[in-house]
Amino acid sequence: MWRIGAAFLAVAIMAAGCGPRAPQSTGQSGAAALPAVVVNPPRFGDDKPHPWDGRDPSSYPVHGIDAARFQTGVDWLQAREAGVSFAFLKATEGGDMLDPEFRSHWQGAGRAGIPRGAYHFFYFCRPAIEQARWFIANVPRSPGALPPVLDMEWNAHSPTCRLRPDGAKVRAEAGIFLDALERHYGQRPIVYTTVDFYRDNDMGRLPRVEFWLRSVAGHPSKVYPGQDWRFWQYSGTGRVPGFPGRTDLNVFSGSVGDWQRWLAARRQ
Question: Which residues does UniProt assign to the signal peptide (predicted)?
Answer without folding.
Answer: 1-15
